[in-house]
Amino acid sequence: MYTYESLLAAVVASDGETREVTDPATGEFIGLAPVQDVAALEAAIDTAEAAQPAWAALPDEERIAYLHRAADAIKESSEALAELLSREQGKPLNGPNARFEVGGCEVWTRAAADTPLPVEVVVDDESGYAEMHYRPLGVVGAISPWNWPMMISIWQIAPSLRMGNTVVIKPAETTTLSVLALVHVMNQVLPEGVLNIVPGPGSTVGDALTRSPKIAKIMFTGSTPVGKRIIEASAPNVTRLTLELGGNDAGIVLPDADPAAIAEDLFWGAFINTGQTCAALKRLYVHESVYDAVVEELAKVAADVPMGVGLDEQNVLGPLQNRAQFDVVDRLVESAKASGARIVLGGNPDREAPGNFYPTTLVADIDPHQELVLEEQFGPALPIVKYRDLDEVVRLANELEVGLGSSVWSSDRAQALAVAARLQAGTTWINSHGGLHPMIPFGGAKQSGYGREFGVAGLKAVAEPHVISG
């Protein structure tokens, strides 16, 4: 079991090229993160390639046992992992944040281990007999983001290992230590060479990973523009891809919804991880008959949720992870103000204060084509649009090129399901937004990517289908 101090000492750099890591809440220096190059990546890929046949040759039961041991190791060092995550990413320890994320790493690792994937008999009749088997692909290249750096890494690592692949992961450049720590803890129990990590720039290390002919599969969570570059870079090798890309999720509140009853769930749908979640609610459309009441009830909830330094146990909202994202949110809110939208709450950051804190912000009476609505803000600012006509609001929800998640809010489940069927998204939630389950497939529609993660679909996505017929 690691303490925060021993875990940090295990992953900080002592030589070579480095990058200073500071706490986004305070500006405090945390440590030096290693910055590796393409040569280090190529060595890691070779290591993974050499280890893969023996790992794949293990019986499924043995790989399952290894994954459970890795989950045990995560659990044993969970507090140290959560503290490092809180310091580097900025998210508070409590609420749906750092401790929650580390706990999710354990849960998703065990789920990937325990999900059955038996041989499928696809035809067995007078016409013939055929079975579908799922074989390892080889080496999986994983590229994880900075918003949920540990848990999304696990979403990539655990199913890949379960199916007999080895992994080379490149963490986001601003949350390097968190993923190094997670991998370090897991590698205390995994066989050597099975799980490898190479921290470095996306422009060099990430690009080389996606172009490598030795990589059989790329798993990437991040922006749509970067996803498009990965598609282009990997195309000559026909590399398999799972891409979970940008979203700008719409929520539609129908006129029969109870504003007071849904306000808290609306809030967390939008502001989990201080809004830094791909599948967060980022534009809310409310029917005019309940608009004022929904805005009022949502403001009551938002005003009472404490934001501050993550290591303070009372806080459940933190800073934006990096200044670039702070600037995006600031720009979009200022644009909304200039357009005549009404600031219900927040919108007044202290730009000179230490840390990347942007206050919880609700923006009402905004034009549905204002840029705060159309552009994914990825932070604690929610535009609330009034609508009258159902067909028109469905059109507004569907008009963007992205389609990760969406939600419908109503007291009438049948009506909510009817509206949900009209929305173009990978997932539509009813009376909630953004909740994920390790057995429910998750992924995007349109330019929010393709491929599915979690459950049986997630295991199949990191395997090669093999039909045996006759």
Automatic annotation (TrEMBL):
InterPro entries: Ald_DH/histidinol_DH, Ald_DH_C, Ald_DH_CS_CYS, Ald_DH_CS_GLU, Ald_DH_N, Aldehyde_DH_dom, LUC3-like. Residues 12-465 form the Aldehyde dehydrogenase domain. The active site is at residue 244. Keywords: Oxidoreductase. Pfam families: Aldedh. This is Aldehyde dehydrogenase family protein. It comes from the Bacteria. Gene3D superfamilies: Aldehyde Dehydrogenase, Chain A, domain 1, Aldehyde Dehydrogenase, Chain A, domain 2. Belongs to the aldehyde dehydrogenase family.
